[in-house]
Design a protein that fits this description.
single chain, 177 residues, mainly alpha, 8 helices
């Protein structure tokens, strides 16, 4: 049986002891409402809402509610949710705020980001047909639309999903002890 100092971390090829202890501790916690709200605020910064769409249209759930729905139906990890923060910064730098976006733009950006993050970080991730089922109670996106969202996001990120532990610690800092 291996000891903690020689055991590999499940999100890494390195032993647990080689990682920032606060990061390891954070990745072993459950997703909180504070994390969801933080991620929602950062996703929202990727778009500049058209004044007519500044508040969600009737029947459209808030972004935080949408994220909670996804967290509850997909069982995504803390690492997957918080890693979206890294990509939101990259998206924001490339897009300079999507001008005159509709209220669903934030939901689309979040969904595409969580999909590519889950696929990048996990050996086994839901297929896009599953994601369509996960969000069908709030959005009627077809699998083809979700495929397009994913491709467009990957192009926007130049298909570069890599990030360092230091970058993760910087973005996850509000939740690290």
């Amino acid at each position: 049986m291996s000891t903690t100092s020689t055991r590999r971390h499940p999100h890494s090829l390195l032993v647990v002891a080689s990682h920032n202890p606060s990061l390891v501790q954070l990745l072993n916690t459950r997703i909180t409402r504070e994390m969801v709200d933080h991620v929602a605020r950062h996703a929202a910064k990727c778009v500049c809402m058209h004044p007519a769409y500044a508040s969600p249209a009737p029947g459209v759930h808030s972004l935080s509610h949408f994220i909670i729905q996804i967290v509850n139906t997909t069982n995504i990890s803390t690492a997957t949710l918080l890693s979206c923060l890294i990509y939101f910064d990259r998206i924001r730098a490339k897009m300079n705020g999507l001008q005159h976006a509709t209220s669903s733009a934030m939901h689309r950006i979040f969904l595409a980001t969580i999909i590519v993050t889950a696929k990048y970080l996990n050996d086994s991730a839901p297929k896009n047909s599953h994601w369509a089922t996960f969000v069908e109670s709030t959005h009627r996106w077809k699998v083809a639309e979700i495929n397009t969202m994913e491709r467009e996001l990957l192009r926007l990120l130049d298909f570069d999903m890599r990030f360092s532990e230091e970058e993760a610690c910087l973005h996850f800092a509000p939740f690290m002890t």
